[in-house]
Structure formats: structure tokens, C-alpha cells
Amino acid sequence: MVVFAVLVWTGSAPAQTKPVSTGPVDIQAGQILYNGHCASCHGIGGVGSKGPELLNVGPAAVDFFLSTGRMPLASPNLEPQPHTPYFNPAQIADIVAYINALDVEHGTPGPGILDVTPACSNQTSDCPTLSEGDQLFLLNCAQCHDASGAGGMLSHGYVVPSVRQATETQIAEAIRVGPRPMPNFGPGQLTNQQVSAIADYVYNLSHTKDPGGLGIANFGPVPEGFVGVIFGLGVLLLVARLIGNRG
Questions:
Q1: Which CATH number is 19-105 given?
Q2: How much of the chain, in percent, has pLDDT values that exceed 70?
Q3: Which numeric CATH code is attached to 114-205?
Q4: Does pLDDT of 84 surpass 50?
Q5: pLDDT of 148
């Protein structure tokens, strides 16, 4: 197994993509896994069959669908939903290496796996902040994923999953890949630094303790207000009844 290089960020370097193995052993191992679990839908060599071809998807798409358990599907007619991953991280890396080798061979590599830059306390031109990620998320993502990242429902039966359990890498991959029905955002719409800011902000949504009170699963101000009204009125009615009975 080829050892992947680990990039260590100091908070001032711009976001870049992670290296993908080009070792023949990893690529061959990925091909064996692909032929056994993926080729029945995506075709031998990724040319497509019951499912779409994979000759231009890029490492980000392969890693996202495998690491979130959306692939492999039991049936090509099903909507991919997050599940426990079928493959372990080493197997996923091998399949990514194989599909990436096919992309390079055909000259059509897709988006790479973004190495998310940690948020900075002071924003610079190449270092995102949580505040920037918040603004970008509300502008581009909250309409479907909710301001708290809890997800929701769309028309035609589409389910918008919660992003609160996703890793920073998976969030960045989803932005670039655009898993259906989500649109993809290319570098012309969101730079790597902006994608990194969104990923870091969303990850912090579910990994930061509530400063006070009950979080109520962080569904947002409307359900929190609803709970407050129901319990608040209930307590007031109970107190009024107790006072009335004493008279």
C-alpha cells in the first residue's frame, strides 16, 4: 500500500487538493474491487451501463459516494442515501486511485479531493474564517439544508440529508460534486478557499457546544420558539389553575 503524503496547514496557505495514489499496486487493487462491486452498473473500465460512466467524475466524486455509503447501490433505480460505508478507508483510496487513473488516461480528470484549510481567527486573502463560512452557507446552502444544517424535503420526493454528521472533506466534496438533487459549485462560483470556509463552518455546527440552554437538536429558531411557546404556555396554565383552585 502506498503511503499518502499528509499536508500540514499553518492557517496561511490556500486550500489545495489531496494527492491521489498513482502506485500500480493500489490501482490494481482498486480495479479488483471496482470489477467486483461497481462494474455491473458503471461498466468495465467505467464506460457506463445501467449507471453513468465514470471517466470524468474525478477523485472527489468517487471518495464522496463511497465514504458516505451512498455507493454501491442495491439497485440503480434507488436514490443514493447516506449509509455506513461498505468499504474501509484503504479500499476507498484504492478505488479512487483506479478511477483517477482512468480519468487521466482519457484526459478528463474531474474535481480533486479538497484539503480543507482550518479556519483562522483573523481573515486574510488566503485564510477563511467561520464568519465567512457562515455567510456563504446562508447564501448558497441554507435554502435546502436549513440554517442549522438539519436538512429537509424537496418536491418529487427528494430528501435533503442533514450535513451535521458529515466530515469537512465530505462537505467540500459535495459542494464540488453536486450529488442529486444538489447543484455542483465549480471554481468559477466558489473558490477553494470559500469551499473550505463553508466546510469548516458546517463541521463546527455539530462540534461546538451550545453556550446555554437546550440545543433541541439545533433545528433553528422556529422549532425552538414553538417548543418555548408550548412549554411556556403549559407552565402558565398550570400555575393559573393552581392559583384558581386555592381561591
A1: 1.10.760.10
A2: 85
A3: 1.10.760.10
A4: yes
A5: 81
Cα separation, 63 vs 43, in Å, equals 18
Contact assessment for residue 184 and residue 175, using Cβ atoms and an 8 Å cutoff: yes
SS3 61: helix
% of the chain at pLDDT higher than 90 = 46
Domain coordinates in residue numbering, the chain: 19-105, 114-205, 216-246
**CB 140 within 8 Å of CB 205:** no
Planar angle of CA 23, 99, 193, nearest 5 degrees? 90
In tens, the pLDDT along 155-167 reads: 777 788 888 889 9
Q: Indicate the pLDDT class of residue 211, thresholds 50, 70 and 90.
A: low
For residue 179, what is its C-alpha cell? 450529488
**Residue 224 amino acid letter:** E
Of 143, 167, 165, 166, whose CA–CA distance to 217 is shortest? 165
Burial letters 26-36, b for 16+ CB under 10 A, else e: bbebbbebbee
What's the rounded Cα separation, in Å, for the pair 160 and 176? 17
Place of cell 472533506: 169
Contact (Cβ atoms closer than 8 angstroms) between residue 6 and residue 80: no
